[in-house]
Amino acid sequence: MTRRLVLAAAQLGPIQKAEGRDVAVGRMVRLMETAARRGAEVVVFPELALTTFFPRWYEEDLSRADHWYEHALPSNETAPLWEAAKKHGIGFHLGYAEKTPDGHRYNTAVYVHPSGETVLKYRKVHLPGHSEYDPVRKVQHLEKRYFEPGDLGFPVVRAPVGENKVNLGILICNDRRWPEAWRVLGLQQVELVMCGYNTPSLNAENRGFEAHHLRVAHSHLAIQAGCYQNSCFAAGVAKAGTEDGHELFGHSIIVNPQGEIMAQATSWDDELIIADCDLGMCELGRKTIFDFARHRRVEHYTRIVEQTGSVAPPEWTPK
Ligand code: ING
């Protein structure tokens, strides 16, 4: 019997620095309602979906950044999302900035069941950018200032979604560029990776040329490879558009276990894309090309977990 999942990726357009959470929540409720009307059983929202991408703004005093974080979920401003999920019987993934009661700060995402219960929580492990103001950069990217590396690992959980149970996993933005992250999920038989992102459309490092068109190409390459090599579906969902003059690209996608793009957003604004996923497709790769038990040789992979940075190779010289 086909295990069919109707998956929605709800791309968000820009959220300006001055806009409150209520603006984003209102837009997300409308996207969720449309997704439900179109038969979706789960909707994936972007990374840091409640606020502007604030790591572009330097604050000397971290307490002045406190208002960007959620101190509890749901809150009065975010409750309409939980209410809409219950009303429409749809699960949702939400990325947000988390501040814990004991003061830890994470770039976090949760998958919430229509009942309102949190099924899965993940804290971003791969934090790009820097922690101090960088005068060379055209635009700051201070995720290492505003967040600690995630402490929850890369969990996968089997949970009810619509009529099926699905093996769910989460990655956040930069995580998608690290094959190790995908493989840890693949080793837990993940079937759907929910991955929100906020990615600048131009390279702001200012330390070398990167052709602009490669920004989107690299994002798609990473997600398509992750899906193919771990035999899973993924939703890569952007917060896009121009936030206070700074552009983030859209091009959200839904990818299948063959690495094929099933649906792609074409705007850089609020946009819903939907795909009918036959979860049985995950079996093929898992039982053939990527039958990990049969083909992997872990005795040769020790560098991956024992070595952090790269080292120069030994040099060969002719006798
Ligand atoms: N943003 C970007 C991302 O990984 C980035 C940062 C862009 C890193 C381009 C490398 C190249 O998509 C976040 N929020 O991680």
What overall form do the CA principal axes indicate?
A: globular
Which compounds are bound in this model? D-[(amino)carbonyl]phenylalanine
CATH architecture: 4-Layer Sandwich
Q: What is the typical, i.e. mean, pLDDT?
A: 97
Could you name the CATH topology?
Nitrilase/N-carbamoyl-D-aminoacid amidohydrolase
Strand content: 25-35%
Question: Share of helix among residues?
Answer: 10-25%
Q: Domains counted in the coordinates: how many?
A: 1
Question: CATH class, anyone?
Answer: Alpha Beta
Low-confidence sequence ranges: none
Rg on CA atoms, Å? 20 Å
Task: Give the strand tally.
Answer: 14
Number of helices: 8
Q: What does this entry look like structurally?
A:
This protein has 319 residues and is an alpha/beta fold. 23% of the residues lie in helices and 26% in strands. The chain is built from 8 helices and 14 strands. The chain has helices spanning 21-37, 79-88, 143-146, 179-186, 213-230, 281-287, 292-295, 302-306, and strands spanning 4-11, 42-44, 91-99, 105-112, 118-123, 156-161, 164-172, 192-197, 233-238, 241-243, 246-248, 253-255, 261-264, 271-278. The longest helix has 18 residues, at 213-230. The radius of gyration is 20 Å and the shape is globular. The N and C termini lie far apart (64 Å). The model has no long low-confidence stretch (mean pLDDT 97). Bound molecules: D-[(amino)carbonyl]phenylalanine.
